[in-house]
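Schema walk-through. Below, the input block comes first and the output block second. Nothing else is stored per chain. Lengths vary across the set, and this one has 117 residues.
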Amino acid sequence: MRNQNYLAIDLELNNKNDGSVPRIIQVGCAIGSPTNPEDIKTFSWYLDPGENITPFITKLTGINDEIIIEKAVTHRTLAQELGELIRVYDIQTPPIVWGGEGVGGMTQLNSRMSSMK
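--- output ---
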């Protein structure tokens, strides 16, 4: 087994259940290697969706408007910090994604981060 670091990303979305595209409110990630499973690093960022967090999402995740107001970072900050982690931990494979509608959530995240170039 190779000593390779992997990146796993979890997205939390503010799903209003009205047919609109859910917006990302939190990005969490874990970085680790199967050859050293006791040394997993975790990181988390909150993002302001530009709308109130729904009561359902607050009940499900514990994330509320106050947390977003207090802790949200810009998409630019997220992109810079996540990019630095990928560089520092030498991530060479695509991330493992769960939550946030999987690929759909990552498409939204990639789109927001790409528009900042």
